[in-house]
Input
Amino acid sequence: MISYHHTLALIDNHSAAQVALNKALQLASKTKAKVTALKVERPYNNFLSRLGLIPNNALDPMLFVNKLLSKYQRLGVEIEVKVINNVKDHVAILNETNTGDYDLVVVNNQHHNTLVNEFIPSCEAHLLRESDLPILIVGNKCWQPQGHILTALETAGSNFAHKELNQHLLDDTQQLASLLDNDIHLLNCYQLENWSMSVNKDHGLFTDEEQRSHHWEHLIDSAKAYHLGDDHLHLEQGLPDHIIPEVAHRCNANLLVIGAGEHHGFISELKGHTSSVIIDQLKCDILAIKPTHH
Output
């Protein structure tokens, strides 16, 4: 069974839907995991409330949360609620995960403006950079049975850690697909090695067609143990930032599984990793898995 035994889900102070908590509980009901619901306590500052036109408790998300928790407690899910005083969401989550035995964090996809994110990182972007745990970033699209899970692999990497991360992505994908009654699609996108501008042509370089064939062989090899047909394998030439959202939309994926935080350095920290760049372009949920977690 999938190795998520204790999930931390952030309570949404602004929405009755509580999609992060709802999906964390849905998954926990299938995996028999414990869920801790984390509420960041903030003072009400609503104009209508201050005028006395609506009661404060009408804005309290716990009215909706408690109904949701009661439903899943009756189904046997172990649930704990923790309240943290007024801090930023990502700080509350990082502090809690650093002191607890969590193995998954679930948060809402807030779909921030990409330009704003360049200067003011979102909660999701902070977690992708600073947490070692898998991060499940969810929207209000329901998980459809007989749907699709898309896993983005980078098959060009040859070192052991990279191959190990790919294997964990595939293993978690297979187990999630079984839990959610979904099938699996695999994606690899690659960049051509273009020697056309080189003064001295390197005869060791492949043609465009040879490069594509080489990447296709790697993708076939990755999929071998999962008995996937060619129509479930996607090989695209281009940047991951553009290709991954396009293929996820084409597949109508319930969930994208992706490795996060594998590349480091000043530019990566400044501009964000691929997983943080594509968050705002995707309509499906995203499970970002860190190499350090495994």
